[in-house]
Amino acid sequence: MSQDEAKRTVGIQAAQLVQHGMTVGLGSGSTVVHFLEALGERIRNDGLEIRGVATSSRTEDVAIRLGIPLVPLTPRSAPDLTIDGADELTPSLSLIKGGGGALLREKLVAQASREVLIIADSTKKVDLLGAFPLPIAVVPFAVPILIDILQREFGVGAQWRLNHHDVPMLSDDGLAILDLPLGVIRHPEQMEPHLRALPGVVEVGLFVGIATRALLAHEDGSIEEIHRTCAVD
Q1: Mean pLDDT, the chain, whole residue set
Q2: Is the pLDDT of residue 231 over 60?
Q3: Cα dist. 85→74, 88, 112, 166, 192 in Å?
Q4: Predicted local confidence at residue 230, as pLDDT
Q5: pLDDT tens for residues 128-137?
Q6: 3-class secondary structure, 124
Q7: How far, in Å, are 3, 15, 185 from residue 23 at the CA level?
Q8: How many alpha carbons fall within 13 Å on the CB side of residue 88?
Q9: Of residues 60, 88, 106, 203, which has the active-site annotation?
Q10: Percent over 70 (pLDDT), the chain
Q11: What digits encode the pLDDT tens for the residues 135-157?
């Protein structure tokens, strides 16, 4: 089984967890696209009635194409279940997210949700976070000074992420995305508030204590289920 077929398998399984009448947070990423396709199929073929809260304009476009009804995030539309991807996750379900640039909206939707399920292929599971550069969403005006601060504090150079045209990227919310190659992050629960306290930083792609469980697709077709523990990485 290819990696994409494994992702499709876990996406289909995640779609089966959505129940009639739910409000569902719709995440982003390649595995989530398979989930959205399976969810759209259930709406068309099974008469499933749900409403979705999209975490990005890209997800919104896919959901509309698939006939998934959407509502904005409000106190009345807080998701019963959010299904999202991850760039890295540990056995205790600390995550790095933001590879697609939607980390602010993803965190807003996840924190408003009763339950957060992460779906990914098994290569995203790591013992410690940090091989994937840490995305940080910042006010564009603050980019030069923040790059300097991060260089002095961590000794590594943050990069303003570029789009497909090699132009500095802005998120759906008009924020710059800095990618910070920290290496091993031994205490993400301490790193997250530390980085968020820097002037100009809006959100950090560390999701600690937010995900409740995960489904990981292996290339042999098996699916590994992980539940969050109280352990700290």
Answers
A1: 95
A2: no
A3: 22, 9, 17, 25, 19
A4: 54
A5: 999 999 999 9
A6: helix
A7: 29, 13, 34
A8: 21
A9: 106
A10: 98
A11: 999 999 999 999 999 999 999 99
> Rounded CA gap, 141 and 125, in Å?
35
| Angle in degrees, 0-180, between the axes of helices 57-66 and 30-46, rounded to the nearest 10 | 30
What the block records as the tokens of 119 is: 């779906």
Structure tokens at 176: 């710059």
Q: Which of 15, 70, 77 is nearest to 46 (CA)?
A: 15
Residue 44 contacts residue 68 (beta carbons within 8 Å): no
Q: How far is CA 101 from the centre of its chain?
A: 9
**Cβ 170 vs Cβ 57: under 8 Å:** no
Instruction: Burial-class residue 86 by CB neighbours within 10 Å (0-12, 13-18, 19+).
Output: buried
Q: Which residues fall within 8 angstroms of residue 198, CB to CB, at 6 or more apart?
A: 146, 149
CA 208 to chain centre: 12
Smallest Cα–Cα separation from 204: which of 80, 126, 98?
98
Strand order in the sheet with 159-160: 159-160, 176-180, 134-138, 201-204
**pTM reported for the whole predicted model:** 0.94
CA–CA separation, 172 vs 142, rounded Å?
Answer: 18
Token couple for 135: 């995305």
106 is catalytic: yes
